[in-house]
Amino acid sequence: MNVVLIEDEGIALRKLKKIILEIATETVFVAELESVFDARNWFMQNRNAAIDLIFSDIQLSDGLSFEIFESLNTQFPIIFTTAYNEYALRAFKLNGVDYLLKPIQKDELQQALSKFEKTRTSYSNDQLFQLQQLMLQFKQPVKSSPTFIPYVKDQMIPFQSESVAYFYTSNQLVYAVTEQREFVLTETLEEVENRLPTALFFRANRQFIIQKRFVANAELYFNNRLIVHLKQKTPEKIVISREKAGAFKEWLVG
C-alpha cells in the first residue's frame, strides 16, 4: 500500500507511521509533507504517482488541508486526523473515508484501514463531491461571541463571552469570571461550551473552559500533563491531561 502523509507535528507523524507499519507492514510512505504549500507543490509535480491512500492532518501551519484537495481536484481516498473540532468530525463521518482523533489509537486506525479496504474499489466522484461539501462547512463563519444574561439580585446583567477569562464549575454551579467580577450562570458547562467559538475558548478539563487571550503561560506537569496559568486568578490549578495536551498546543497557536 502506497501512502502519503500530511502532518506538521513531528511526534504525531512518527507515531502515525509506527502504528501504520504495525498494522500494514508492507506500507510504503511515498511522501511526508508538512504544509498546504508543500503538499500542493508535491502533488502538482507527481500527478502520476501511484498512491493508494492519504493520511492528512486537517489543520496545518499554513491553512486547512482541504485547500490542497480542492485546488488539485484529487480523487485519492483520504483519512483525516485532527486533535479537535468535534462538530466538523461529526459532519465528516457521514461524508468521508474516515477520520482519526488525536491521540491516534491503534484499534481506531485498524478500523479506518478496514473501512478503506472495503471502499477502495468504489472510490469515485461521489466521495470527492462529499469532501467538497465538508470543506464548505469548514469555511462557514465561526460562531460569534454569544451573550450571557445572568440574574444578579433580580437584575439581568448581559455580558459577551469575549469578556470572560474562564468558565468553571464547582459544587454543581457554573461561573463566568471576567476581569471585573464573577457571575453565576443557569447553563451547564456543556451547554456553555456548545455556545462558544472554539477558536477563542478551550475545554481544558471537566471543570474549566478558558479563553485564549487570558492564557499567561503553560508549564510541564508530571505524566506529560500541563498546568495552564491565566492572567486572571483561578480557584485552583488548571490541569490539562496528556491526551488533550496536543490539542491545547494546536489551539493556542491557531
Query: For this structure, what is the CATH class of the largest domain?
Result: Alpha Beta
Regions with pLDDT < 50 over 5+ consecutive residues? none
- Cα(first) to Cα(last) distance is 33 Å
CATH topology assignment of the largest domain? Rossmann fold
What is the residue-mean pLDDT, rounded to a whole number?
A: 83
- Content of β-strand: 25-35%
How would a textbook summarize the main sheet? 5 strands, parallel
Task: List key phrases describing it.
254 residues; alpha+beta; Rossmann fold; OB fold (Dihydrolipoamide Acetyltransferase, E2P); 8 helices; 19 strands; 35% helix; 30% strand; elongated
Architecture overview:
- The chain is α+β, with helices and mostly antiparallel strands.
- Helix 4 (about 85-95) packs antiparallel against helix 6 (about 125-140).
- The protein has a five-stranded parallel β-sheet, sandwiched between helices. Strands 14-13-12-16-15 form a five-stranded antiparallel β-sheet, with helices on one face. A three-stranded antiparallel β-sheet has the order 17-18-19.
- It has helices spanning about 10-25, 35-45, 65-70, 85-95, 105-120, 125-140, 190-195, 240-254, and strands at about 1-5, 30-35, 55, 60, 65, 80, 100, 145-150, 150, 155, 160, 165-170, 175-180, 180-185, 200-205, 210, 215-220, 225-230, 240.
- It folds into two domains: about 1-140, Response regulator (Rossmann fold, 3-Layer(aba) Sandwich), CATH 3.40.50.2300; about 145-254, OB fold (Dihydrolipoamide Acetyltransferase, E2P) (Beta Barrel).
- A hairpin with a 3-residue loop joins strand 13 (about 175-180) and strand 14.
- The model has no long low-confidence stretch (mean pLDDT about 85).
